[in-house]
Design goal:
By secondary structure, this protein is α+β, with helices and mostly antiparallel strands. The protein has 2 domains: about 80 residues, Glutaredoxin, CATH 3.40.30; about 110 residues, Glutathione S-transferase Yfyf (Class Pi), Chain A, domain 2 (Up-down Bundle), CATH 1.20.1050.10. About 45% of the residues lie in helices and about 10% in strands. It contains 9 helices and 6 strands, in the order βαβαββαααβααααβ. α1 links the parallel β1 and β2. The longest helix has 21 residues. Glutathione binds next to α1 and α3. GO terms for molecular function: glutathione transferase activity; maleylacetoacetate isomerase activity. This is Glutathione S-transferase.
Length: about 230
């Protein structure tokens, strides 16, 4: 039996994307169950799966119930250590765990002001000083990791750390935030990764847009996919 992962709308749910990217890039079989965040029955639907108020949640093949993205990542790290889900070097692995925790707990300004939206980008967004400070911290993390690894991901090949930072990379693109060359190259590596492409394409088939994520009167421009 495969893992089951409860997710929200694939165009919008940043934590669900982290959940998906904790399985798919490592060829860990997972069955997706989708509910509608901000839908009328969201909390009941999450509870029916066995979760608690938020997505993602996961059911393990042997009956485990995980109600948080960080717990899912830790479980994957423990269970699939042989699939290079984290760096093999113990110090780098500790640093990866540290930045995963920082993502889970921090970056509150950019998370609050720049909701994930994989359907579009917005021209004319004016970031606050706090958002720019979050971008600067993200770039600091990227510089430290990628100077050593050489990229294209934080620790070279895709790891759980990239699963957690992917939605931050897409926010840079959706809100046309000013970014360094390293951040730009990282964002491109994320959105062209096959597991991300699969996720976004499924999201583009979703019909209902979330009104509160509409940034009009900002101008809609295409979300960059780096395919041309
Ligand atoms: N700490 C949770 C946060 C998950 C989270 O906030 N998920 C959002 C969707 S991206 C959600 O379910 N929001 C619904 C709500 O808070 O009512 C985790 O890391 O899994």
């Amino acid at each position: 039996m495969a893992y089951e992962l409860l997710i929200g709308q694939q165009s919008y749910s940043s934590w669900s994307l982290r959940g998906w990217l904790s399985f798919a890039p490592f060829d860990i079989p997972v069955t997706l169950r989708k509910v509608e965040i901000y839908g009328d029955s969201f909390f009941q639907d999450v509870a029916a799966f066995g979760g608690h108020r938020t997505v993602p949640a996961a059911r393990t093949p042997d009956g485990g119930l995980l109600t948080d993205s960080l717990a899912i990542a830790w479980h994957i790290a423990e269970t699939f250590a042989d699939r290079d889900v984290l760096p093999s070097d113990p110090i780098l692995r500790a640093e990866a765990m540290s930045i995963i925790s920082e993502m889970h707990d921090g970056f509150t300004a950019i998370r609050g002001a720049c909701q994930v939206n994989l359907r579009t980008a917005w021209a004319g967004f004016e970031p606050s000083a706090a958002v720019l400070a979050d971008v600067a911290r993200f770039e600091e993390i990227l510089d430290r990791a990628m100077t050593r690894s050489g990229g294209p991901f934080l620790y070279g090949a895709f790891t759980l750390a990239d699963a957690f930072y992917a939605p931050l990379a897409t926010r840079l693109l959706t809100y046309c935030l000013p970014m360094s060359g390293t951040a730009s190259a990282y964002a491109e590596a994320i959105v062209t990764h096959p597991s991300f492409v699969e996720w976004r394409e499924a999201g583009m088939k979703e019909t209902r847009e979330i009104a509160r994520y509409d940034k009009a009167p900002l101008k809609r421009i295409p979300f960059p996919t780096f395919t041309e």
